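Anyone up for a design puzzle?
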């Protein structure tokens, strides 16, 4: 993937990206806001050409926040999703 139009500001980072997956091209606009120490929000607006499984565009929103030190068995960067599954 390539990234262009990277803009940084206080509590904000944004960039455009373009990725090729075989014959499909994905373009996206990503905006990340927050203090980046205790919380952030990432919003990604994507377009797919040709459409991916009938989907021409989509939006992803992710919010993260510091909830405390790692619990036993966790590593820095672990993400626990609803349902209890942990990913790193």
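Challenge accepted. My sequence:
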């Amino acid at each position: 993937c390539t990234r262009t139009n990277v803009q940084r500001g206080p509590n904000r980072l944004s960039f455009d990206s373009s990725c090729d997956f075989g014959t499909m091209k994905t373009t996206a606009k990503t905006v990340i806001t927050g203090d980046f120490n205790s919380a952030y929000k990432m919003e990604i607006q994507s377009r797919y050409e040709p459409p991916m499984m009938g989907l021409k565009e989509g939006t992803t929103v992710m919010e993260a926040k510091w909830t405390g030190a790692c619990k036993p068995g966790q590593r820095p960067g672990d993400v626990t999703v609803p349902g209890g599954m942990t990913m790193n």
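A detail worth pointing out: The mean pLDDT is 92.
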